[in-house]
Every structure is written in structure tokens, then in C-alpha cells.
Specification:
Order of helices and strands: HHHH
Number of strands: 0
Low-confidence stretches: none
Structural class: mainly alpha
Shape: elongated
Number of helices: 4
Oligomer: single chain
Length: about 150
């Protein structure tokens, strides 16, 4: 356990940092989505507009995940846990998504950080899923009410 104490010292603040970045980023994305969809007066175009906005939201949340993986990759480089930036980014994305098929391994004394990143990735993807679901829940009833009014 003492061997892994540095992993926890680095891993926990990185989890906190990436969650704060993620929540802040999701907040900004949400503001933009509400602003764009709030301007959509013609409800007949709500669903196509919503599809475009959801696509943009997915791209932006993917960029958030990439930024967070880059922060982890930077930490791996600073700590000397991986030999180069390309390997560090590939490892980070692989760990964050729990894909795990990259043939890249952290230095033995930093391996707990990889497990902590997988835990972190599950939290981040859970936040993203909840966010996208909330967006759908907010817009779907609006389109539904419009259809019922026309009936």
C-alpha cells in the first residue's frame, strides 16, 4: 500500500480536477443549448434543430473528455510513468474509456493511477450520459406538447 501512496496523492486531485473541468464544461454547453433551442419559435423545426444541437453537444463533450485525458497524459509524462506524449495520451484514453487494448503499460509503481483513471472515466462518462439524457428530457416534452396541440 505504501508503494501506491504516490498514486493516490496524484490520482485523487486529478479526479477532482477532471470532474470540475467536466462540470464547468457541461454548464457552458448547457447554456449554449438552452440559448439556441430557446430561440426556436417554429416548433416544426424543433426536432431537426434539436438533432443538430445534440450532435454539437456530443462533439463538445467528446472534446471535454479529450482535454481531461490530456491532463492525465501530462501527469504521466511529468511523473515519468510513460516514455512519450503519444503513448501517454493513448494510454490515458484507453484507461479512461476502460478500453484497455493498447499495448502500453505504466511503470509498475504508477499502475494504481491507471485504475484510478478508469474509475474517473466511469464518473465522467456517467456525468456526460446524465447531461445528455437531461437535455433530451427537457426538449422532448416541448415537441410532444406541440403535437398534442395540433391534434
Amino acid at each position: 500500500m505504501i508503494l501506491w501512496s504516490a498514486d493516490w496523492v496524484w490520482g485523487l486531485p486529478l479526479i477532482l480536477l477532471t470532474v470540475v473541468i467536466h462540470v464547468f464544461g457541461l454548464g457552458i454547453i448547457n447554456e449554449r443549448v438552452v440559448r439556441v433551442l430557446g430561440r426556436t419559435i417554429d416548433r416544426r423545426r424543433l426536432i431537426p434543430m434539436f438533432a443538430v444541437v445534440m450532435g454539437a453537444a456530443v462533439l463538445l463533450t467528446t472534446a471535454l473528455h479529450a482535454i481531461e485525458a490530456a491532463a492525465r497524459a501530462g501527469a504521466y509524462r511529468v511523473l515519468g510513468a510513460l516514455p512519450d506524449s503519444k503513448s501517454a495520451m493513448l494510454y490515458s484514453l484507453s484507461a479512461m474509456t476502460t478500453y484497455g487494448h493498447a499495448n502500453i503499460f505504466l511503470e509498475p509503481h504508477w499502475q494504481m493511477m491507471g485504475a484510478l483513471e478508469a474509475l474517473n472515466g466511469m464518473l465522467l462518462f456517467g456525468l456526460t450520459t446524465a447531461f445528455l439524457f437531461a437535455m433530451i428530457q427537457e426538449v422532448w416534452p416541448v415537441g410532444s406538447r406541440e403535437r398534442h396541440r395540433r391534434s
